[in-house]
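Input record (Table S2, row 202):
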Amino acid sequence: MLINLGRNIKILKTGIIENASCPNCNKINTLNFSIYGGYINVIIIPSAPIKRTILVECSNCKKTYKLKELTPEINTNFKEQYKKNPVKNPLWQYTGSIILAVTLSFAIYTGIQMKKAEKQYIINPLIGDIYRVNNDGHYSTLKVKKVSNDTISIYINDMETNTYSGIDEINIDKNYNKTQFFTKQNLRDLYTKNIIYQIDRR
Ligand SMILES: [Zn+2]
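Output record (zinc ion complex):
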């Protein structure tokens, strides 16, 4: 999850709504608008811009309005005026989001490519392939010892671990002593059931 470290709000633009009179005091060209905006900081990298707020204040009577409280005519005036010179979002405000999106899509892409490769690996085992297995929360490994046609001779790891990350510690030669025979179909079944959840090939 993203950590929202704070919002950076500032006035982006100010001006007078031209040719409009204050609904309160009827004086013309006294409606000052201020556009507030900014961005949310996600860990020091500015991320998505936040929604703009527009406040209008009459310089004569000091009454403040939200845009929608003013007449449709004044709103039209403002929109026409704003279109000519809008507030732009600098690209750097999006930097955080872009970095995040690129990182995520790369991770997803890599994951998909890995799974594609594994589907080939399980059909055609090679000596040295490591199968990471999850047997009800007990993690261990199998290692392909020999392949002859449909019979695969496989080392069973003597050790298991109950943490996902402990695999590397037990995946060592001296733990591979027992051998068991599998058919290719046996292996495919284990892979389909996600008992073999990852295949490492060097
Ligand atoms: Zn006024």
